[in-house]
Amino acid sequence: MPPAIPSVSPDLLLTNIARHVLLTPAEAATVAAALRPRHLRRRQFAVQAGEVCQYESFVVRGCLRAFYTDVNGFEHNVLFAIEDWWIADLASYLTQTPATLDVEALEDCELLQLDRAALEALYEQVPKLERYFRLMLQNAFVAQQQRALQSISLPAEARYRQFRAKYPQLEQRLPQRHVASYLGITPEFLSKVRKQVLQES
Amino acid sequence: MPPAIPSVSPDLLLTNIARHVLLTPAEAATVAAALRPRHLRRRQFAVQAGEVCQYESFVVRGCLRAFYTDVNGFEHNVLFAIEDWWIADLASYLTQTPATLDVEALEDCELLQLDRAALEALYEQVPKLERYFRLMLQNAFVAQQQRALQSISLPAEARYRQFRAKYPQLEQRLPQRHVASYLGITPEFLSKVRKQVLQES
DNA sequence: GTGGTCCCATGAACTGGTTTAAGAAAAGAC
DNA sequence: GTCTTTTCTTAAACCAGTTCATGGGACCAC
Prior knowledge:
alpha+beta; four-stranded antiparallel β-sheet; DNA-binding
C-alpha cells in the first residue's frame, strides 16, 4: 500500500480570511473548493523564474523563500513565508508575465494554491473576496516599500535588529546565510554583526 | 485685477485612461467632475510625511519628487513624476495611515487631484475605473519591485546607466543631487560615475 | 567509526562608496 | 548688474562591508 497522502485542510486559510471579511458557510465552501492542495518537498520549487507564476500559495505548513538571481548568478532573498502567509511572485501572477523570482521550499510544505483563473471565478461568485485580496496586495505593497526604505537608510546592524524584532520565529527557523541574503550582506559579515548584537543582550 | 488662475484641463488624464479602459463621453464627464485642479509652486508640498495622504495627484504640467527622510535627517528620493504620471504616498493613500513620504514640487505644477472619498464614489458610478486603478497599483508594485532588485544587485554605475536609459527626459530636467539621491549614492560619487560614463559615449 | 557535506566563525587584505574640504560655475535675489 | 546662495567637480582620507582563505563543528550515509 502506498503511503497515504494526507489532504490539506483549508481551515487555517478560512480563519485568515475571516479576520478581514465575513463569509457565509456556503461561501467558505466555494473558496475551499477553488483551492488546489499541494505538497512540496524541501528544495522543490513553487515558482520558477522565467515562467509565468501560475499560483498564489498559502502556507498551511512549512517554510519557503522567494529569491532573485542576479546577472552574476548571486541569489538575493526577497521574502520568506511560513504558516498562515501567502507567497508568490506577485508581479508575475498579477500581470501574467514571466517571473523574476524563484520560490523554493526550505522545509517540506503543505500549500493551498489558487491559480489566476480560479481567482477570477471566485471574484464572480464571492465578490467580498475582492476586498480580501485587495488588502493582501496593499499589505504586500506597504511591506515592500518599508523594506526598501529601511535597506537604503539603515546600516546592516540596524537592519538585523529590525529583522529579529519583527520576525522572531523566522530567525530560529532559517539558516543564517538565508538571513544574510535577505539583509543584503554576506554570511561572514552577518556573523560579525551577530557577535556584536548577541553579546549585548 | 488679480492674475487669472487658469483652470487645469482634464484632457491629458482622459487620454491616459483611454489607453487602458474605454469610457463613454458621459463617464468621462463624471471623471472630470470628480477631479480637483490644483496649482503648486516650486518647493510647495503635495503630501507631507506624518499626515494622511489625501490625494493621488495626476501631473498635467510640472515635475515632483517623493522622498523619505530617515532618522538622521537625510533625504532619499523614491519616485519622480512629470507630465502624464500619477504621484502620491500610495501606501498612505490606500490604507489612510500617516504618510512616510513627502511629495514636493520641483517646478511649478498643474495637478489633478483625486481624494479617497471621490475615488470610492467614482467606483460606484463608473465601475470600469476599478480596472484602471488596479492597473495603476499593479504598475506601481512592479516598478517598486524592479527598483528594489536593481538596487541590491547592481553597482552604482550600472544603476546610473539604467536610469539614463529608462528616463532620458528626467535626467535633463532634474538637478544631479536629486538623481544621486534616487540612485542611493552621494552627489560627489555620482559626479565621478558620470565622468566615467559620459566620456565613453 | 570515519569520510563527506554543509554550515558557521574568524581574520587579513581589499574595494565601492562616503566624508570632508575647497574651488569653480550657475542660478536666484534685490 | 552684482551679491549671495546653491550646485557641481575634484581629490585625499576614511569606513562599511566584501573576498578570500582557513579551521571547526554538526549532521548525515555507509
